[in-house]
Amino acid sequence: MSAPSGITLATLAKDIRLEWRSKDAINSMLFFSLLVVVVFSFSFDPNAEESRLIAGGLIWVAFLFASVVALNQTWARELRNQVLDGYRVSPAPANALFLAKAIGNFIFVAVLEALMTPLFIIFYRLRVLGPAWQLLPVAILGTWAIVVNGTFFAAMSLRTRSREIMLPLLLFPVTLPALISMVEATTTILVGDPSTSAKFWIVLLATYDVVFTTGCLALFETVLHAE
Amino acid sequence: MKKAFPILGLLTAALLSYALYEALVVAPREQTMGDVQRIFYYHVPSAWTAFLLFAINFLASVQYLVRRNPQTDKIANWVVVALGVLTCIGAYAFQRWLPADVYPSSVVTTGVAIAGLYFLIHKYFSEQGTDILALTTAEVGVVFCTVVLVTGPLWARPVWGIWWTWDLRLTSTLVLWLIYVSYLVLRRFSTSGETPVLAAALAVFGALDVPLVYFSIWFFRTQHPQPVIGGGGSIDPRMLRVLLINWLAFLCFAFLVCWSRFRLERLQREVEETQALEALLEPGGSVR
Question: Measured between CA atoms, how close is A21 to chain B, in angstroms?
Fold first, then answer.
């Protein structure tokens, strides 16, 4: 039996290799968020000033919806050939598997964000007026907030009828405070009003991440074995 | 037990009619809002009842999770005791950090009440019972929360001039409602044999979410002040009396509904268990 970190790394490497060869998740996420960008720009047709105000919400809603695509297939993939059952009976700690899946999804969504953000900037003529470096912690903490809960709820919705629709139904209500924080922080930074600061939102986002990462790690084993 | 139910039902019906009479006739007419204000006697008791039911749902879900293992059960009992004691000490030690209108004694009362409720549930409900209790309180809580969300706009339209505003209380109640609806959807859609475990985990997540929702919306809204400000200030003691009578009536009603729903669910599970057993014992029968 190898150490938990070894199991995490092995699972993570396997997931990344699978994704690298098939590119299923990343392609569908990319195309999906591209569609969101185009559809939104037709429905609002904003000028540069307006788009600065709405872009924070747009970007995160697009990423949230797109990440559901990756999250939905993260466990479904393990159902084939009873991989998940194999994992259940093995002595490997459940949290090692959970962390591998969460980190894997984090990487996929981060790649999506890195590819889509330039497109957003071009399409919506964005120029950051606030401290732009603050966008980095917002992006990291926000993506982790979506992904950690998403991975957990995807495992939860594995044994439900109409699994694909179940994940957003569970994920969105619980993610609302994180979504508010991400959107508000991004908008504050984009608008760059000196009287307000994004720091409160970043702290709230970090709190959310700590609370829910702890919650996921505490309950994942129970959920994994709930068959 | 069988006699208590109709007696309680009659009592609740009498209390509800008395409370209705009190709310519509006895309670004084509000000076500025007029009779519209009387919806308050339904709105506020429903909200309090819904929050109480959601709190019971959370406690029952925690218990369902920890009681699967005797050791975690024991740890959880001590954690609850410790949290209760810490709340009592903390309420007085950090008194000046509390908002001006929150007394330390009310914090202590809340802490002790929640801890007491935890142990009451622990004493009177089996492991299976806590799951049925969680399901029941979530269902009835969503109904009461819906009443809150419907009566709120009905009152707001004539008084504020708008049906809805994204204010702190309105938004956090709506999010709470969404979380518990998703809880019920999970229970309905899950095909796993261990649905109670999944549902209990989701209930814990929902409860973790509530303070975060509250803080995020609080900050979100204080940044953008609202054109409408609801109330504050003091309440006429006659109105308070009517409000409390109505709350009592609503609590009895909620208890009654929860009780019958609890019995129904337990009977249904017993029937299912018996059928499964019979199918096993039947010669030549097979279990799907």
Answer: 32
